Structures are given as C-alpha cells and as structure tokens.
Amino acid sequence: MPSTSSDPTKQSRFGEKAKFLPVAFVVCNVLGLYLIYMFYHAVPRLSNPESRYRATIETAIFNAVTALLAWCYVSCIVVHPGSVPDKEEDASWQYVPQDTKGDVASLQETKRSGDRRHCKWCAKYKPDRCHHCRVCRMCILKMDHHCPWIYNCVGFRNHKYFFLLLFYATIDCHIITWTMLESVKDSVRNETPFMTSFLLLFGETLAAFIGTLVTVFFGFHIWLMTKAMTTIEFCEKSLKRTGYDSSVYDRSFLGNVQSVLGDHPLLWLVPAYTPAGRGLEFGQEAELDGQKSIKEKSFRGYGATTGQVSGNPGTYSPVPTSRNDSGDEGATSEPDAERPPVFRG
To answer: What are the angstrom distances between the C-alpha of 87 and each of 5, 28, 110, 283, 325?
Structure first.
C-alpha cells in the first residue's frame, strides 16, 4: 500500500468524524452487493454441477476485480493528493509580498497583474494547476476536485487511484448486473423464499443503478484525461469560450494518459506506480513524440480570442478566468483575479 505523508497538517483532515459518513455509506453498498452476489448467486451456482464451471470463472473474476476496487478505494482515502512544499522542504514556495513579475517565466498560469499566483490562506505561491481546497484547508497539487465519497481531494498523487477506482467499480457493477440476472429470473420463475428473491432483486437493481452512474462518470474522466484537463479546468469559463482542445498541458494522447496512469503501459491498470514528478511543474516539454510543441498547440487553440500584451511583443494572454486569488472555484471581479495561462514566445 502506498505510504502517506507524516506531516501533521496533512493528517488533520481525518479529524472530522462526521465526514466519514459518505465513506461508510460507500463501504456498506460495496459490502452489501458483495455478500448478495456471493451467497445468493455464486454459492448456489457453484453447488450446481451444471453451472459450476461457468460460476467458477465468474466468481474468480468478480473477486479479483473487487479486491482491486477495494485497494484503489483505500488508496484514494489514505494517499495524500499532494500539497505545496512547506518552508522546511523548499522555502522558495513561501509567499513574500513583492514584485514577482520576473519570476514567472516557467509558469503557465499567472494573475492578471502578471505576478505569481499565491494562496492568501496558506501563504504560499501556487504552482500551475494548484488550487486551494476549502474542505481540506490546503492547496492541492493538480487538483481535480474534492470528493466527499473518499473524504479526500483528487490531486496529483492519488489521481491514478481515483481513475482506477472508477474503472474497477464500473466493471464490478456490470459483472453483477449481467451475471446475476439469471439468478433473479430463476427466483421469479421458481418457488424461492421471499427474502432470497428480495435480496436478489435489490442487489440487481442497486448494481444496475450504480453501474449506470459510474459508467457515465468514468467516461467523462476518460475524456478529461485524453484532453489533458482536470475537472476544475473543464469548468473554466475561458475554455468554454475557446473550446476544449486548447489545453496548454496537452502532451498528445499517449503523453496525456501517462500523466495520469504512469509511464509504463503494462502497469496502467495496477493501483501503484503513479506518474513521476513532484506535481509542481507541467507543460515544460518543447516536443513530444513528433507532435507540435505545447506552446504552438496552445496558441492555436486560443488564437481567436487572444491579444498581444503591451510591452512584450512575444507574450499573448487569453481571456481571463473567474477564479479568485485563492484558486477556489467561486467567481470574482477583483482586478487581481487569476487568469488562464500566459504563453511566452
């Protein structure tokens, strides 16, 4: 199991016991569906010589997928998504009120004033794709969203576990829905105890309902991954104006998948071996797999709505976003609000 950080500020998020209620709800649903499937479908099928061979294969696959699902779910909860380094780790991220316009050459995102983004609550500079989570009360690296079902944010370090959680949850629900349907039909046709019929029908309905929701949500996250976007970036108003094919962090299809699932394709479905790096820098590659540079792609996507910044003929700035200085998703009209990436030629 991946290790967690020993930083006490990162462990304090587990101090609010009431926020474990959504986690307990998920655990009860998973455990309930597992017990219904095993004791009211798998075991009777394994006891029948006519269906034993097929039931053995179904049960083995179901248990393997469920084990991977549980591994991913626990990892989503206990693995910290990543935060801006503390002063002891790297003092350069500590916010110092001063003119920082000359320190943003390697950044894709700055404020409207041209200064480095910083968090007024954490008193730290924020790297690209970093946002402050009001629930976790800290800045999260490559923040996708806060998920109450895992009592954690989805960020740089646990994004792979969350993506695989959706993948294995989708498979598990479909296994239950399509393989247990035969047992449900048999319970209706034959004289079956009421509780057995009820539990089979309840499990079938619940698995189909959850499976439909998770399948749609998983498809959405596949699309986000191929577009090199997080959920927060998807909601940016500037992207809505310019289209969703203009992400400055696009690294081609393979590169985008590797940025979430890791560098080795054979290990993509293993809930381990997360992407390399610290989550502090993105989009610095000039060329990748023969594709055009990130800057060229980004300029092409924003070209219709960008203008030249006075005083710097090689700088173009797209339409401002609506995030505030903290990186939260609330709209603001403050003059120092954040803006989308600035591209320097």
So the answer is: 16, 41, 22, 25, 21
